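pasting for ref. prot 1 ->
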Amino acid sequence: MRFLFVHQNFPGQYKHLALHLARTGHTVAAIGEKPNLLRGRSSLPGIQLMGYEFAPGPANGPDAGVIAALARGRAAAAAAAALHREGLRPDIVFAHPGWGEATFLKDVFPQARLVLYCEFFYRSAGSDVGFDAEYAARPETILGLRVRNAPFLMALDAADAGVAPTIWQRLQFPARYWPQIRVVHDGIDTDAVTPDAHARFAVPGSDLVLTRADEVVTYVARNLEPYRGFHSFMRAIPEIQRRRPRARIVVVGGDEVSYSPRPPRGETYRQRLLREMAGAIDHSRLHMLERIPYADYLALLRVSAAHVYLTYPFVLSWSMLEAMSVGAAVIGSRTPPVEEVIADGENGLLADFFSPSDLAGKVQAVLEDAALAQALRTGARRTIVERYDLRRVCLPQQLALAEELASAAVAA
């Protein structure tokens, strides 16, 4: 079969599927923003790459996002048309609609089955918006959500199917689209993301090497921001340190903003929370790191005695599932995306997102009760292997969907 993947930062969520299809003899092409493709092309053997150039233009005004999405959609369509002129006739097009690239693909390849990655649909209530009163959305932001969803709706109107990684993410989309959206996770490579009782983590900038013999509390996010509960975790640190005097807390993340309101120019959430907690934290037992290489990140998860994952009702991070896959004892926020995976007391513990005391108490419970910690570790690993394993669960589901859609296309 012939496949086309469209994602501004390809491979993105399509890495494992696209590479598997290319390795097994299928024709695979991909469209993405040219600089992103150039950075990653060495790791994408067997895939024909077509980059597009995109100038977002002015970012002012309430409709700037959808205007940029339409421009990106036209750029992606031009790249698709170039592949069409070269003779590509994909049977299936997989596309992420979040940035507008999927908008016109069906017009270029009307015979192809278009499958969207349904990551998130914004709502004015019941999910991320309005969840955290400290960072309340402004009225114009709430009104702008309909505009923000426009690229999703235009793509959904043209799509043949959708894939959402979790049930909760699927349910964020309008009910009329639920029948065409399957729940299939991207998958966790449980053969590589494994437990290791002998793991060691060297703390950058120091001579300190942490192992499973240490009392390591970890928090990891792509960026340290409210959407991922950074402020809630920082406010829990004094209580965690008071309850567990031997605990070493390791925080990893960047200082950009992925989803949250942007702080004033020149300020980061890291700076803001460190200033707020000045005098309340023992910094000799707190290690605040920038982003680290993936191998080091896995080593850190493997030495973690208690791993904290917090999130608004929003997209579920791979990091929580990877922490569970290495057998970490996870304390997650009692929010819908986390509750879909963690059964409190069985494969992790759940804590109130907004309660530093509750969070500290759950961390303490894991650190002082070895039997509980081991039961949670075992349950966490089992959950990921049984429900989210890449090669034995998720990739076969993705391939089955592709076969089904291809067969339907032939029948039509």
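and prot 2 ->
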Amino acid sequence: MFEPIKRSRRSQIGIWIESLRVRLFIITLILINAATLGMETVPTLVQNYGSILHRLDQILLGIFVVEMALKLYALGWRFFKSGWNIFDFFIIAIALIPSNGVFSVLRIMRILRVLRLISLVSQLRFVVEALLRAVPGISSIFVLLLIVYYTFAVIATTLFGPDFPQWFGTLAQTMYTLFQVMTLEGWAEIANTIMSKFPYAWLFFILFILIATFTMLNLFIAVMVNTMQTIQERRQKQMRSAIENATHSESEKLQYEIRLLRAEMGELKTLLKNNKD
């Protein structure tokens, strides 16, 4: 007798905690918490309002704990079937660890609560899901980029290292310099200085920038866009399939009711005919 009532209560709490109104409320609290954590980095604000900020932080954490407890109660063990729920649980669990003594460094981890916006906003979840699904393709591009880096680093260290050791003295220095060149930050100054000794060095720098900056960057973007498009098409296909299944079910139900109605009408006609006879 009490089990259906208990399940119904759990279901109602689950629907309420996942409702749009509650989600918007939690998102607002997360943004407020992010603002208070930022204010705690300002010494004058901490000196004047430190106790208020600390108390507000504790209240917000308490609300987040209650929200998580309600989700656990509503979903039970099904709560841990969702990766986003585990992500939220991990962030709240870190926040509950005492931030004193050897755990004082964990006080910085409170800012991770802002990351809960990712799990609450569907658009952000979509971007993160696309990024995770694109990891294999991005890893291949990253390996290719490392090969290009290493090749150009060996060439630059051999050619320019003896005369410009501050940039190309060792392989590690060269790779750091090439990274700076790839970001297009101060590369013209480096290239012009090298060209004073090696007039044709511009060929090396332009070729490296074309391959490492423009080509590789476009490959990264292409993989991300392709992955996002694939996920979007899959979701649209699932939605169309669900709509078609629902429509088919309604159509079968309607046909079944029509057959029942025809059968009842046939029985009624037979009954009327028998009464006339």
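The chain has a mean pLDDT of 82.
Residues 2-120 form a domain with the Four Helix Bundle (Hemerythrin (Met), subunit A) fold (CATH 1.20.120.350).
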